[in-house]
Amino acid sequence: MTHPVLEKNAVVRGLCPHDCPDTCALLTTVENGRALKVQGNPAHKHTDGVLCTKVSRYTERTYSAKRLLQPLKRSGPKGSGQFVPVSWEEAIQDIASKLKAIASENPESVLPYSYGGTMGWVQSESMASRFFHKLGASLLDRTICASAGGEGLVYTLGGKFGMQTEFFSESKLIVIWGSNSITSNIHFWRRAQEAKRNGAKIICIDPRMSETAEKCHVHLAIQPGTDAALALAVMRELVVNDWLDHDYIEKYTLGWSALRERAMTWTLQRAAEVCGIDEALIRELAKDWGTTQKAAIRLNYGMQRVKGGANAVRAVACLPALTGAWRDRAGGLLLSSSSNFKVNKVDLHRPDLLGSRRPRTLNMSTLGNDLNQIASAEWGPQVKALLVYNSNPVAIAPQSGKVVQGFAREDLFTVVMEHFQTDTADYADYVLPATTQLEHWDVQGSYGHTDVLLNKPAIEPVGQAKSNSEIFRLLAKEMGYTEPCFLEDDVSLCRTAVGSEVDFDALLAKGFVSLKVPEAPFANGEFPTPSGRCEFVSDRLAAQGLDPLPNHIPNYEVPAAGDLYPLAMISPPARNFLNSSFVNVESLRAIEKEPLVEISAVDALARGIATGDTVKVFNDRGEYHCKADVSSRARPGVVNGLGIWWRKMGLNGTNVNEVTSQLLTDLGRAPVFYDCQVEVALLKKA
Ligand SMILES: Nc1nc2c(c(=O)[nH]1)N[C@H]1C(S)=C(S)[C@@H](COP(=O)(O)OP(=O)(O)OC[C@H]3O[C@@H](n4cnc5c(=O)[nH]c(N)nc54)[C@H](O)[C@@H]3O)O[C@H]1N2
Ligand SMILES: Nc1nc2c(c(=O)[nH]1)N[C@H]1C(S)=C(S)[C@@H](COP(=O)(O)OP(=O)(O)OC[C@H]3O[C@@H](n4cnc5c(=O)[nH]c(N)nc54)[C@H](O)[C@@H]3O)O[C@H]1N2
Ligand code: SF4
Ligand SMILES: [Mo]
After folding, report:
1. 581 Cα: distance to centroid of ligand 2 (angstroms)
2. How far is CA 434 from the centre of its chain?
3. 312 contact partners, CB below 8 Å, separation of at least 6
4. How many A from CA of 672 to the centre of ligand 4?
5. C-alpha to C-alpha distance for 203 and 177, rounded to whole angstroms
6. Alpha-carbon distance 180 to 189, whole Å?
7. How many CB atoms lie within 10 A of CB 448?
8. Which CATH code fits 148-338+520-543?
9. Cα(304)–Cα(651) distance, integer angstroms
10. Domain(s) of CATH 2.40.40.20: residues in the chain
11. Distance 450 CA to ligand 4 centre (A)
12. In this predicted model, what pLDDT tens digit does every residue of 67-101 receive, in sequence order?
C-alpha cells in the first residue's frame, strides 16, 4: 500500500507521542505544506482542546534551526561532537557492513537502546524489534521508568488497571501520591480541580513541596522512600478505628489476617519517625481515607524510584480494597491503565524471527556498567555495537560518569537516531536524522486513559529525516533480510499493531477510538490475579523466595547526621522539560533558566549558601555544578535537583545523573534515581 499523499492545506489529526500519561489528541494546522500550529483536539474528551506548554510549541521544535537534517559521520574523537555530512546510502551501507562484521562473531555483541522519545507502537519497537530479532542481538530490559511500580501493581491488582481519570472529578477525597500532576499529568489535575470545586479534599504526599503540593489542602512532606511505612500506618489506623469494609475484604481480597498483623506493628509513632512527619498528619490521612466515600488515589511513578519502590506501590494499592473504595467509580486508585491495551506484539515485533536463539537480556538501567564489561563466560560477549533511538542515555541513565566512560570507548560502534545533537549523539559514529510526530504515521494507547489514537503525518519529513521504521527497513534491506515483514509500510504497521481489537477504519476516520472498559473495574472484585482477589499476600512472590506481603524497605542510602554525604537527593523533572526532551527548545529553557538544586533554608545556612550561588552536588560517584535555590520546596535534609538537563548545558558538563547510582529496585529491576545520598558545598557566591 502506498502512503496517501499529504495535503498542502489541512488540519491534520494526530497524537502526542511523549512519555506522558495524558496522550493528547492533536490538531495540526498546515498551510502550503508547513505546519503553522499544533493544538489540542476538542473532540477528544481527555484532551479537551488543551495541550501542555511544551507541546503547544511543537512547531518550534520541529522547525528548529538545530534540527538534524542529514546523516552525519564522526570526524573527530569520540564525544567531540565533530561530524561530516554523508549520504543516506553511504551511512546505511557502512552501518550494515559494520553490524555484519560484529554479528558474524557474535550477534549478542549488538545492543539496541531505546525508550520513551516516542511511545508510538510503530515508531518505537515495530520494525526495530523485527530487525534485532532477525539479527539475534541482545535483548533490552526496558526498566528505566516504571517497572518497579508496574510489578507492584501486577502482584497486587493483577495488572496495570485502575480508575478512569474522568471519574476523579466526582471523588470527594483525592490523594495525589508521589506525583507532581501539574507538571506531569495536567489533564488529571483538571479533573482534580473540578472535584475540588465540588468540595473534595485534596492531599498530596511528596517530599518536595511541588507545584501540585502547594495547591492541595494538605501536604505530607515525607522522607523519600518511606511511602510503605506511611501506608502500613494508615492500615493500622483503619483497623484500630474499624474504618474497614469487612464485606469487601472477605469477598474480594487475599491474606488480610497476615497483612493486618504486619500493619499492627506500624504505630503512628513508628511511622512518623520513619517518614519524618507529624503523627497527626498520618492520623488525618487515615481518617479521611477511612471515612470518605468516593475516595481515590492518583499514584504515580515518582514514589517508586527507590529501593523499596515496588513494595511501596503494593502497600498503597492495598488501601482501596480495605475500605471498599473500589465499589464506586469515583473511588479506588490509578497508577497506570496500560494493561487495557492488547497490542498485537506477536505480529508487530515478530519474536519468531529469533528462531531457536535465546539472546541474553541486558538491563537498560545499568548501561554504565554494561558498556564497561569485558567478555566473560557469565557475561557473554562485550557490547561492540549500540543502536540508540528514542532515548538520550548519556543524559538520562543513572551514574552518567560510567555511561560516558562506556560511550567513549573507541572500539564501540554507536549509531544514534535523533532529532537533535543530544549528549548521546555527541558520542555517535553515525547520527541519523529522525522524523518528528508531525512527519510520520503512528498509533498508540495511553497509560492515563483507555483510548487508542492514530497519528497521521501532517507535513513532509524536514530535511532528509526518515522515520525510525524506515531507517530499520533500509538497514534490513542492506543486511540482505528478505522476509516480507521487512517491506511492510507504516500504515500497514499501524493496522498490524492494533490487531482485531480496534476498528482501524474508525481510527482513520476519527483519530481515536475508546476501548470498552468497566466504569468501576473492581466493584465486584474480579481482580486479574491468580486468585481473582486483591492479593495482599502473593503466592507468586513467595514462590520466588520473596516476602509475600508488602513491607517498608528502607532506601539504600539513608543519610544520617555525621555522614560524609548527609543529604538525600531526589531529581524529579522540571515542569517545562520532558525528561531530557525540550531542554533545547529556547523558549522553554528560558522559563527554567538554568540547572539548579533546591535546598532548605536550614541546610543552606549551615553551608553558607544563598540563592543564586554556584554550588557542587557531590558524592563518591561524581560531582554536579549548578545554582542553588534556597527554597521552602525542599524539606530539611532533602535536596531537589530538578532534571533532566543536557550535560553539555551544565556548568561543569554534567547533570544530576552524575551522582545517581546504578542500584536496582526490590522488584522490576528498575533504577533508584530518588534514593541517593549527596553533600552540597558552596563553590562561588552570586
Ligand atoms: N513536564 C513533564 N511531564 C512529564 C515528564 C517530565 O519530565 N516533564 N516525565 C514523564 C514521565 S517519563 C514520567 S515516568 C512521568 C513521571 O511523573 P510522576 O509519576 O509524577 O513522577 P515524577 O515526576 O518522577 O515524581 C513525581 C513526584 O514524586 C515526588 N517524589 C520523589 N520521591 C518520592 C518518594 O519517595 N515518595 C513520594 N511520595 N513522592 C516522591 C517528586 O518530588 C515529584 O514531585 O511524567 C511524565 N510527564
Ligand atoms: N535523575 C533522573 N533521571 C531520570 C528520571 C528522573 O526523574 N531523574 N526519569 C527517568 C524516566 S521516568 C524516564 S522515562 C527516562 C526517559 O529517558 P528517555 O526515554 O531517553 O527520554 P528523553 O530524555 O526524553 O529522550 C528521548 C529522546 O528521543 C528523541 N526522539 C523523540 N522522538 C523520536 C523519534 O521518533 N525517533 C527518534 N529516533 N528519536 C526520537 C528525542 O529527541 C529525545 O532526545 O529518564 C529517566 N531518568
Ligand atoms: S506531553 Fe502530555 S500533556 Fe503535553 S501534549 Fe503531550 S500528552 Fe498532552
Ligand atoms: Mo518515565
Report:
1. 6
2. 21
3. 152, 225, 227, 228, 231, 303, 304, 306, 550, 552
4. 13
5. 8
6. 9
7. 24
8. 3.40.228.10
9. 29
10. 567-684
11. 18
12. 999 999 999 999 999 999 999 999 999 999 999 99
CB 151 within 8 A of CB 314: no
Looking from the CA of residue 424, the nearest atom of ligand 2 is 44
Give the mean pLDDT of 218-245. 98
The pLDDT of 9-17, averaged and rounded, is 96
Class of domain 567-684: mainly beta
Q: What sign does the dihedral 133-138-139-144 (CA atoms) show?
A: negative
Please say whether the beta carbons of 460 and 33 come within 8 A: yes
In this predicted model, what pLDDT tens digit does every residue of 492-514 receive, in sequence order? 999 999 988 899 999 999 999 99
Q: Indicate which residue's Cα is closest to atom 8 of ligand 3.
A: 24
Q: What is the CA radius of gyration of the chain?
A: 25
Per-residue pLDDT, 242? 98
Question: Ligand 2 pocket: which of 580, 619, 640 to mutate (most atoms <8 Å of CB)?
Answer: 580
> Which has the closest alpha carbon to 103: 661, 604, 478, 611?
478
User: DSSP secondary structure string, 572-610?
Assistant: PBPTT-BTTBTTT-HHHHHHH-S-EEEE-HHHHHHTT--
For residue 116 and ligand 2, the question of a CB distance below 6 A is answered with: yes
Rounded Cα distance between 357 and 583, Å, is: 41
**Of the candidates 124, 515, 554, 530, the residue with the CA atom closest to the CA atom of residue 337:** 515
Could you tell me the distance, in angstroms and rounded to a whole number, from the CA of residue 53 to the centre of ligand 3? 9
The minimum-distance atom of ligand 3 relative to the CA of 51 is 5
DSSP string, 446-512: -SSS-EEEEE---SPPSTT-B-HHHHHHHHHHHHT---GGGG--HHHHHHHHHTTTS-HHHHHHHSE
Counted residue by residue, the chain has a size of 686
Residue with CA nearest ligand 3 atom 7: 23
Coil vs helix vs strand at 13:
strand
CATH 3.40.228.10 residue window(s) in the chain: 148-338+520-543
CB-based contact 589:602 (threshold 8 Å): no
